[in-house]
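Researcher: Sequence recovery benchmark, item below. Answer with residues only.
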């Protein structure tokens, strides 16, 4: 990887990952949500310039629908490496109610990404395959970021560590705030449900309090994920002009709160 994933500008500044589209939102939700590969690459370029160290990559098929197609991923990753060679690329394996665990495994196997996010809750739909997906990542050198929605997910991950299903070096976590709350509105206290852990962790947060949650995560020593996958507006409900505008505003606020 480029090195940005394991480096920080200062001891306090968090790593910033941009999630510009997600699996569900489209141009009807906001005119600047990137759907095509060209739009995704241009969004990555301006977000990297704004200070994001990496992109959480979702690709879409010809109808604009969420896809785990290896060819689309490889095309997008090739373009990203040309335009933003120093930006980290994390692919999603999100099921989004469409893909089963074998399809998620096939995606990781065929794409062979450097970095992938994998939902513990989704893998648990086929627990007999859990060892296969985490073992595959270990064997091919794919860094895993575990997606956790609540304390039950964290407890399941802990059990999988105990029995060796998840490899000991696969420790990175993304704590998702607000995903299953009413109206998908998060608040900073949502972090308190997750057990303390010395491993690297990151937060993303749905709704108008996205930046407030990310500021609190940074105060606690966590990294942050920001972008239109999680929120289209600021804390007052005003729509961001673009993903890059949200990234820039967050970095400016982090500089203030971490002084």
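Model:
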């Amino acid at each position: 990887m480029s090195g940005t994933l394991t480096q920080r500008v200062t001891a306090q500044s968090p790593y910033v990952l941009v999630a510009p589209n997600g699996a569900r939102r489209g141009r009807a939700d906001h005119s600047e949500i990137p759907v095509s590969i060209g739009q995704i690459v241009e969004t990555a370029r301006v977000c990297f310039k704004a200070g994001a160290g990496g992109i959480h990559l979702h690709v879409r098929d010809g109808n604009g629908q969420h896809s785990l197609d290896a060819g689309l991923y490889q095309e997008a990753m090739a373009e990203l490496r040309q335009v933003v060679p120093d930006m980290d690329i994390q692919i999603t394996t999100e099921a989004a109610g469409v893909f089963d665990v074998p399809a998620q495994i096939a995606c990781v196997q065929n794409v062979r990404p450097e970095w992938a996010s994998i939902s513990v809750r989704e893998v648990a739909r086929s627990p007999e395959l859990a060892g296969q997906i985490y073992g595959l990542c270990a064997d091919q050198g794919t860094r895993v970021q575990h997606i956790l929605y609540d304390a039950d997910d964290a407890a399941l991950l802990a059990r999988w560590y105990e029995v060796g299903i998840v490899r000991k070096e696969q420790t990175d976590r993304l704590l998702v705030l607000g995903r299953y709350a009413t109206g998908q509105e998060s608040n900073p206290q949502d972090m308190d449900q997750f057990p303390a852990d010395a491993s690297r962790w990151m937060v993303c947060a749905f709704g108008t309090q996205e930046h407030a949650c990310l500021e609190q995560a940074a105060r606690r020593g966590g990294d942050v994920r920001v972008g239109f996958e999680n929120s289209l507006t600021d804390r007052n409900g005003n729509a961001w002009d673009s993903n890059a505008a949200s990234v820039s505003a967050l970095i400016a606020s982090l500089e203030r709160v971490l002084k």
